[in-house]
Amino acid sequence: MTNGGVDRSVECTGSINAMIFAVKCVHDGWGVAVLVRVPNKDDAFKTHPMNLLNERTLKGTFFGN
């Protein structure tokens, strides 16, 4: 349906599982995932390094900055 992934994903819930999926669903080579909300302080963002080494971009922001 997306031929390898989406170009951009924006995750605004603060859910760790949704954040990981937002990174995994972007296209290798040019996909950008933006994480907007701060997760729970006890949560840990764990994903395989290849999810980033495949030239995906991960950006984060909070409070509109």
UniProtKB/TrEMBL annotation:
- Which regions form coiled coils? none
Cited InterPro entries: NAD(P)-bd_dom_sf (IPR036291)
Record keywords, A-Z: Metal-binding, Zinc
Which GO molecular function terms does the record list?
Answer: S-(hydroxymethyl)glutathione dehydrogenase [NAD(P)+] activity; zinc ion binding
Q: Does the keyword Zinc apply?
A: yes
Gene Ontology, cellular component aspect: cytosol
List the lineage, top down.
Eukaryota, Viridiplantae, Streptophyta, Embryophyta, Tracheophyta
Q: What is this protein called?
A: Alcohol dehydrogenase superfamily, zinc-type
The biological process GO terms on file are: formaldehyde catabolic process
Q: Quaternary arrangement and interactors, per the entry?
A: Homodimer.
Q: Which domain of life does the UniProt lineage start with? A: Eukaryota
Is this entry keyworded Disulfide bond? no
